[in-house]
């Protein structure tokens, strides 16, 4: 099976929020589903994609009158599996949820953790986004063709940084790029970072030759001229960004990332439905829809059992792709 077929559905960003009072769509203020003391875990460092999505969702939920006072906290480590292990250990806790995405799916495989996403309660997938290929403003690579020429000549001398562990989106994207460019994936010098915040510092400090990350994470730095955008990894150009797709650059591949929300195992049906109802209300809000557009995120809403089936399929795809890449 072609890798682009395997990975074309891999999508992007997400979130959930709450605290008192939580409202159903269109209910107005004062009544609705309440989840007092809800906490939202971010399983990577501040400034990464999970973090940006979580804090955006928290603000949007509050601005929409859906909630206030939700606690968003970071618990980074091992590509998100430290947070996943904590979540799975909170059996029956209906006041905890975790932002996550394709990176956690991959980290479970590469870190061989006993806790898996099959142990969680799926709540929703909200967003999908493309990855971007970026370099620092002083980089000698002014176009994606410049970068590819140097990369083909000596892959080991051009370290590529990503904000996810091996098996995550920022790892799989450059591996697919390498394969399409005629570079053996095992020759790629991939440097993992625990989230986009750590990766950004390394790109700006010339610690890596180029970086791969989500489009929504570095828009401010691109607009400020601190980063140079060379390409986007999805099937079409991103509106407002002057960068070709990988296919336009001559690489027969594409890639998108996704993010969503999961909760601990052992929830009652009522607790699960409250969380799904809250995320649905957030998704339907004008505030969230505006944030999707602002951050270049595609609406990819999928809730409950349908999201659970999607997670199962993603787990199988990642396992297959890692084996096909020889990783």
What would your notes on this structure say?
With 327 residues, the protein is an alpha/beta fold. It has two domains: 3-128 and 256-324, Bordetella uptake gene, domain 1 (D-Maltodextrin-Binding Protein, domain 2); 130-232, D-Maltodextrin-Binding Protein, domain 2 (3-Layer(aba) Sandwich). It contains eleven helices and ten strands. Strands 1, 2, 3, 4, 5, 6, 7, 8, 9 and 10 form a ten-stranded mixed beta sheet that branches. Strand 1, helix 2 (49-63) and strand 2 form a beta-alpha-beta unit. It is globular and about 60 Å long.
Morphology call: globular
Overall structural class, as computed from helix and strand content, comes to alpha/beta
Mean of all residue-level pLDDT scores: 88
Rg over CA atoms: 19 Å
- CATH topology descriptor of the largest domain: D-Maltodextrin-Binding Protein, domain 2
Short structural description:
The chain has two domains: 3-128 and 256-324, Bordetella uptake gene, domain 1 (D-Maltodextrin-Binding Protein, domain 2, 3-Layer(aba) Sandwich); 130-232, 3-Layer(aba) Sandwich (D-Maltodextrin-Binding Protein, domain 2). The protein is built from eleven helices and ten strands. It has helices at 3-7, 49-63, 81-89, 102-111, 144-153, 169-180, 196-204, 219-223, 269-284, 286-295, 304-324, and strands spanning 39-42, 71-74, 96-101, 121-136, 160-162, 190-192, 210-214, 227-232, 256-263, 298-303.
């Amino acid at each position: 099976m072609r890798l682009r077929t395997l990975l074309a559905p891999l999508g992007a960003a997400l979130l959930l929020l709450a605290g008192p009072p939580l409202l159903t769509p269109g209910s107005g203020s004062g009544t609705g589903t309440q989840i007092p003391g809800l906490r939202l875990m971010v399983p990577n460092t501040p400034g990464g994609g999970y973090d940006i999505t979580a804090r955006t969702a928290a603000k949007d939920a509050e601005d929409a009158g859906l909630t206030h006072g939700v606690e968003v906290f970071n618990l980074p480590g091992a590509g998100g599996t430290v947070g996943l292990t904590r979540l799975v250990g909170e059996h029956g806790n209906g006041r905890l949820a975790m932002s996550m995405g394709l990176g956690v799916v991959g980290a479970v495989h590469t870190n061989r953790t006993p806790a898996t996403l099959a142990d969680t309660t799926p709540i929703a997938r909200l967003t999908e986004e493309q990855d971007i290929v970026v370099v620092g403003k002083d980089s000698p690579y002014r176009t994606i063709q410049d970068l590819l020429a140097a990369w083909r000549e000596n892959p080991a001398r051009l370290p590529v940084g990503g904000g996810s562990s091996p098996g995550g989106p920022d790892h799989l994207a450059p591996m697919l790029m390498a394969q399409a460019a005629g570079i053996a994936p095992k020759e790629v010098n991939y440097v993992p970072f625990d989230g986009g915040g750590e990766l950004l510092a390394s790109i700006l400090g010339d610690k890596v030759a180029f970086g791969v990350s989500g489009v929504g994470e570095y828009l401010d730095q691109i607009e400020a001229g601190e980063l140079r955008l060379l390409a986007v990894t999805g099937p079409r150009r991103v509106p407002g960004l002057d960068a070709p797709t990988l296919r336009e650059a001559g690489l027969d591949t594409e890639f998108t990332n996704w993010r969503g929300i999961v909760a601990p195992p052992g929830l009652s049906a009522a607790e699960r439905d409250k969380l799904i109802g809250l995320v649905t209300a957030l998704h339907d809000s004008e505030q969230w829809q505006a944030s999707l557009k602002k951050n270049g995120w595609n609406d990819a809403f999928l809730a409950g059992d349908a999201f659970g089936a999607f997670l199962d399929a993603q787990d199988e795809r990642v396992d297959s792709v890692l084996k096909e890449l020889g990783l």
